[in-house]
Amino acid sequence: MSRKGVGLAAFDRSRITSAQYASHGNSLRSSHSTSVATQLSVFRSLLQQFAQTHAKDIRSNPSFRAEFARMCAAIGVDPLASSSGAGGKDGGGSFWAQMLGGSVNDFYFELAVRVVEVCGASREENGGLIGVKEVKDRIMSTRMEGSSEITDDDILRAVNTLKPLGSSYSTLTVGPKIYIRSVPKELNIDQSAVLEAAQVLGYVTVSMLMINLKWPRARAKTAIDDLVSESMLWVDMQCAEWEYWSPGFMLGTGDDG
Amino acid sequence: MSASLPSTSPFPFPRFYNFPPFFSRQPTLQTHHSQLRKWSTLILNYCRHHRIFKLSLIDALDTELLYNKSLDKRMGIGEVREVVEFMRKEGRAEWAGEGGKGVGGNEVWIWWRNPEEWASLFYEWVDDTAQKHTVLTLYELTESEATISQEFHGMDPDLLQKALSILVKRGKAQVFGQEDQQGVKFF
């Protein structure tokens, strides 16, 4: 008959158990946190050593830089976020800036300035939406010879450094392509679809959209017209059916110039 | 100034020359403005490359400048006029003809250097070659071998007159003689 304590004592018992669990949990937690803290300090000093020894490589070698950034991301350290952290960890400069003498930060900040320049200069022709690759090409074309190479990844990181400024710079993925947006403008689903379609041949037409996306004419026309009025598409009227070109293709084809 | 020899080499067209919509007037104001600026740059560079001082719009329509054969796209006369107007407002073009009143006309000065700039170029050259107070014929200035390396070599005679008259006004030169036999002296 005494299968289970169903009397009042059961309440006491459960209270005691939970208290025991809690105290055990506390001790576990504290021992855990001390060990993590030690690990972290060891790790930090190792990372610091590593970064100091390889600061030059990080700055000059794009693939090394990307690997380093990926490693940091994998272990949950964002080199850029930790550098812009409010208050800076150890008094003056940030944890990261101290580690690398600011070189990684400076690299991305300088790059960010260039990105802003390129976006500003090209806004008129592309409505403030420019592919990461085009930005890279433009920056590379104006750089001095012998200066270190930059990658798409670097550009994206540079754009992220602009975030704390509350600026309108953000990245936007349309299909397989990543764009940098320098005007606070949201694209709706139809507009994104049109831009994605325009990546294939460089242009779209109303009937292309009607056939491939099974859109009624009015829908295709509206989406295109919206993008044209935002300078995100250019019209070629010298063809049987008007073609709407993505300004990204201005850089993608032809010779340098 | 080694690059200033009249080049027979083909003009290196910019990338946007191969962008088909570049040849159609863009309906969006902002895009159109960007288009005008690109055309303005292209025309100035093209004229500088080929030492074209005065452009006849009608004739230019069929040249590579305004007609991209490989794309089979071309600029219409209306669009070109708009570009020229844009350039004129930027001080980089001027309608040729009676008193600059040939608006909508056919011929247009392309100021890849404007008359002021030409004037100072002449003056510098004369100074550098120690020919002040020497009488030079206008033919000598623009057609002789002595100036073959200069950008003003082969200059349109009307433009030459314009540039010299600026120097005359400033009292830095004096032009004398009859037509075809004119000479100039720099001070």
UniProtKB/TrEMBL annotation, chain A:
* InterPro entries documented for this protein: ESCRT-2_cplx_Snf8, Snf8/Vps36, WH-like_DNA-bd_sf, WH_DNA-bd_sf
What is the protein's major site of localization? cytoplasm
Keywords for this protein: Cytoplasm, Endosome, Membrane, Protein transport, Transport
Name the Gene3D superfamilies on file: 6.10.140.180, Winged helix-like DNA-binding domain superfamily/Winged helix DNA-binding domain
Q: Which GO terms describe its biological process?
A: protein transport to vacuole involved in ubiquitin-dependent protein catabolic process via the multivesicular body sorting pathway
The membrane topology term of the UniProt record is: Peripheral membrane protein
Lineage top rank: taxon: Eukaryota
| Record's keyword annotation contains Protein transport | yes
Check the UniProt entry and state the signal peptide residues, or none: none
| GO CC, any one term | ESCRT II complex
Compartments (UniProt record): Cytoplasm; Endosome membrane
A Pfam family found in this protein is: EAP30
Its assembly, as annotated, is: Component of the endosomal sorting complex required for transport II (ESCRT-II).
Function, in words:
Component of the endosomal sorting complex required for transport II (ESCRT-II), which is required for multivesicular body (MVB) formation and sorting of endosomal cargo proteins into MVBs.
Q: Which family does it belong to?
A: Belongs to the SNF8 family.
Q: Write the protein's name.
A: Vacuolar-sorting protein SNF8
What is the scientific name of the source organism?
A: Amylocarpus encephaloides
Automatic annotation (TrEMBL), chain B:
Gene Ontology, cellular component aspect: ESCRT II complex
GO molecular function terms attached to this record: protein homodimerization activity; structural molecule activity
GO biological processes: macroautophagy; protein transport to vacuole involved in ubiquitin-dependent protein catabolic process via the multivesicular body sorting pathway
Q: Which Gene3D superfamilies match?
A: Winged helix' DNA-binding domain. Chain C. Domain 1, Winged helix-like DNA-binding domain superfamily/Winged helix DNA-binding domain
Q: Where in the cell is it found?
A: Cytoplasm
Query: Taxonomic lineage of this organism?
Result: Eukaryota, Fungi, Dikarya, Ascomycota, Pezizomycotina
Q: Which domain of life is it from?
A: Eukaryota
Query: Is Cytoplasm given among the entry's keywords?
Result: yes
Can you tell me which family this protein belongs to? Belongs to the VPS25 family.
Alphabetical keyword list:
Cytoplasm, Protein transport, Transport
Specify the protein name: Vacuolar protein-sorting-associated protein 25
* SUPFAM superfamilies, alphabetized: Winged helix' DNA-binding domain
Q: Name one Pfam family in it.
A: ESCRT-II
What are the boundaries of the signal sequence?
none
